[in-house]
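Message: A physicist's question: would you kindly supply an amino acid chain plus fold tokens?
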Amino acid sequence: TNSQNDALLHKLVHTTLLSGSLAPELNMSSGQRRKAMAGRLMELVGDVKLGKGERHLRKEEHNRAAKNVRDGIAQKQRERQKQELESAKNLGNYHPALKGLFEDDSSSSTPKPRTRGLKMGVGKFKGGVLTLSKDEIEKVNGPASRQSNRGHPYRRR
């Protein structure tokens, strides 16, 4: 029945899929467990990459804070990352090939700047005139067929 299926799904989700966030030996508070579970669910649904769910939730939570608080949190995070990088270099754990592991996730993926307004598919609009290059015209029309019909003007190919 549906209730049995629901119970089975609940057990499956809480024992295998969410096992890392519900481990009792972690001694997490109820708030931490709730955030860990919500983050893991976001990962399972596919909203965020694996292992990034809880961090994404925290980031959303930080975005609701006041601007000066957000700036302070970001500054502290940058300081922590610098310290982590320095300690890795001092311990000999750092190698330039592993640079991505020590960099901030948000700084590595800078979004492409959005072009404002409506954009035409082809050409450049200058001074009230749309100018098209030969390449753009060829892209739209397709490459011109350079073969002649060799004496059969009405034959199709």
User: Anything to note?
Assistant: The mean pLDDT is 79. The radius of gyration is 28 Å. Strands lie at 124-126, 129-131.
